[in-house]
Amino acid sequence: METKDIVKWWGIPKATIINKNLPKKQLFPHIKSVKEKQFLIDSVQSVYMLANFKTDNTNILPFESVDELYIEIWFYYVKAKEKGNAEKIFKLLASLIPYPLVVLTEESETFTLYTGRFERQVNNYLKLENSYPSRVFKSEEVELVLRNVVLSELPRQNFKVFYDGLRDELTKQLAVEQYGGETSDITADEKDQLDELSKQIDSLRRKIKKEKQLNQKIDMQMQLKKLKDELQNLIKTRSEE
Length: 241
Known about the structure:
This protein is an alpha+beta fold. The protein has two domains: 3-177, no CATH class; 182-240. The chain is 46% helix and 24% strand. The protein has helices at residues 3-10, 34-43, 55-58, 86-96, 142-148, 159-179, 188-210, 214-240, and strands at residues 17-21, 44-54, 63-64, 69-70, 72-80, 101-107, 110-120, 126-133, 137-138. Strands 1, 2, 5, 6, 7, 8 and 9 form a seven-stranded mixed sheet that branches. A two-stranded antiparallel ribbon has the order 3-4. β6 (101-107) and β7 (110-120) form a beta hairpin. The protein starts with a helix and ends with a helix. The model has no long low-confidence stretch (mean pLDDT 89).
C-alpha cells in the first residue's frame, strides 16, 4: 500500500502532510530497554510519519489542563512484519513520542487504527493510560474505512475534542462489532465500562469451569447472571438515551 493513497483516502489536509519514512535507527537512542529495541527490529518493517496536526496548519487550538496536554497530534502508518503485535507497537510509539498519536498498522493484509487516552506528566510528556483499537479490517476495506472517518467533520474547538472525537468514532465501530447495534453511538468512556464488565464475565466463566464444589459453582453462576444483566442493562440504557 502506498502512503500517498492513505493520505488521499483519509482526506488529510495538505498543510499537515509529512509522508516520510521514519528510519527505525532514529528511534533507537530513545529506547532504553534492550528488549524493546529488539522488539522494534523483529516486529516492525517500516514506520511512516503521515501528518502532523498543529495550530499553525489547522487553526485548531491547543488544549492544556493539569492532567492533559494536546498541543499537536501525529498520524503514523506502521507496517508490521507479523500479525499480533499492533497494540504493543502502538504502546511503544506512544512511549517515545510526546504527543497524542493516531497509528494505522498493517499486519498480514489486515489493518487496525489505534488511538489512546493519555495523562500529562511533570515533564510534559504523555503517559499512555489506555489504547483504543478500531475493528480489524481487510486490505480491500482500507479505502472505504478511511474515507468514512472524515477528519474535516470532527469537532474542532481544540485538539482535545478533535482527538476525542476521532477516538470515539473508531471506538463505536468496534463496539457495534462486539456488543451489537445498540452501541452505535457509544463513547470511549462508555465502552470502557462495557469492556470492564465483559472482562469480569470472562474471568468468572473461567473460574466456574475450574470450580469443583457445587455450592461455590452455584454462587458463581448467580454472580455471572448478575454481571450479564448489568452488561445488557448498560447497553439498553445507552441505546435509549
